Amino acid sequence: MNISKIKNQVEGLLYPSACIVCGEETKGELVCTYCTDKVLLIKEPKCMKCGKHIDDEYKEYCPDCLTASHLYRKGIGAFEYNEYLKETLYDLKYHGTKYVGRLMGKEIAKKYRHDILEWEADCIVPVPLHHKKERKRGYNQATIIAEAIGNELHIPVRDDILLRSVNTVPQKELSKEERIKNLENAFIIRENVVKLEKIIIVDDIYTTGATIDRCAKVLLESGCKEVYYIAVCIGVGV
Question: What domains, with CATH codes, occur in the chain?
């Protein structure tokens, strides 16, 4: 059996041909023909900072990025956050559908290949879970997504750089101000980490940017020069 055939068989196991929304069989696509209008890439025009869709084509930044001082340099929110992807990502987190994270990471790498490679990042760092939460869940969904992107684009993935030192309350339950306070001192840099110049942070959902900013803060303080982010979904009009 040749290497190519082995690779195809392995990919068949890692990336089942099932729609991430309804579970129907597909021909290697992210969604089936009936669900194509339920999983939508963020359309132009986009905010030049966070990548969120903006209604006015003559504006360069969304209202949030005009007023907030985000610490990351630039980001990609790949898909619109809607009721379908809300359920899909919930299943990824809590029902063990890890193949969804792999498929979405692979799709992001394919659709945004040029933009991501243009950043010339040294590595990809998934947003960490607290060790108690990861032990209970058995995996970190951000790591699964990050590894799929890294494998496609040949960018190293480092899950040994950031540590979540505080078992925080879920961000979805909090207001914007509470999200920021909730994440104070939540992340730390592990000891003996080689300093890297450009890092991409990966998470499943971008809402206010509080989580990405907190991760960026400790990375920049450790000597990193530029921080970027990739999220599977980004809220529209948040």
Answer: 1-38 (no CATH), 42-234 (3.40.50)
In single-letter form, the type of residue at position 79 comes to: F
Q: Please identify every stretch of the chain with a pLDDT value under 50, giving residue numbers as ranges.
A: 1-9, 11-12, 171, 238
pLDDT score recorded for residue 29: 85
Q: Which residues contact 202 (CB under 8 A, 6 or more apart)?
A: 124, 125, 126, 127, 142, 145, 146, 149, 229, 230, 231
Record the pTM: 0.86
**187-189 and 162-164: which strand pairing?**
antiparallel
Number of residues in the chain: 238
Contacts of 39-47 with CB under 8 Å at 24 or more apart are: 39/79, 39/84, 39/85, 40/79, 40/80, 40/82, 41/78, 41/79, 41/80, 41/111, 42/77, 42/78, 42/79, 42/80, 42/234, 42/236
What is the identity of the amino acid at 174? L
pLDDT digits (tens, 9 = 90+) for 55-75: 888 999 999 999 989 999 999
